[in-house]
Amino acid sequence: MKYILLPIAFLLLTSCNNKVCIDCKDYLNRQFLNYYEKYGINDITNFFNLDSHYYIYLYSITCPHCENIKGCILDYIDLNKSPPMYLLQKDKIKNIKSYFKELPPIEIKDKEPYIKESLNKCELKDVYYFGTPSLFEIKNNTLINYYVGEASLITLFNSLN
To answer: Is the dihedral of CA 16, 81, 122, 98 positive or negative?
Structure first.
């Protein structure tokens, strides 16, 4: 009996709070590469100087979590929503971690304090690097929101729809 209740409990805990959960899979089988020429960032030193208000989506082509939310990212871009979204492929920037603030050498169970510490910063050396997928919201050359991980991004896209 408890083996039946465990999956049910899991589904309830991972629900979208009685909202319809958005499906972020890319059923159109689009490729980030096709978007990178127009929306991609090749020079990370311009991270805070692209526009007055925008998102930067950090992803990797080998990241399964990035693949799971690719549909929402590319739909957002295709619909020309505002603020605009730029793409930053981790693999295109050599030693990308070196541009960011280094996390402490301990296992981090709660990312939230580090994310909050990164907010209101205007230089990458003051922003913690968590890997992919991550979404940075920048306004007036300052990081105002930072979404880390697939679940965080799905929650964001649920609120945008």
So the answer is: positive
3-state secondary structure of 17: coil
88 CB-side CA count, 13 A: 24
Question: Is residue 133 reached through a cis peptide bond, with omega within 30 degrees of 0 on the bond before it?
Answer: yes
Angle, vertex CA 122, rays to CA 117 and CA 127, nearest 5: 40
> Full-prediction pTM beyond 0.70?
yes
d(CA 93, CA 89): 7
Model pLDDT for residues 47-106, shown as the tens digit of each residue: 999 999 999 999 999 999 999 999 999 999 999 989 999 999 999 999 999 999 998 887
The three-class DSSP label of residue 96 is: helix
Strand ranges of the sheet holding 53-59, from the earlier edge strand across to the other edge: 85-89, 53-59, 134-139, 142-148
Among candidate residues 61, 58, 57, 54, the one with its CA nearest the CA of residue 32: 61
Say if residues 66 and 60 touch (Cβ distance below 8 Å): yes
Encoded amino acid at 79, one letter: L
> What does the alpha-carbon distance between residue 75 and residue 84 come to, in Å, rounded to a whole number?
12
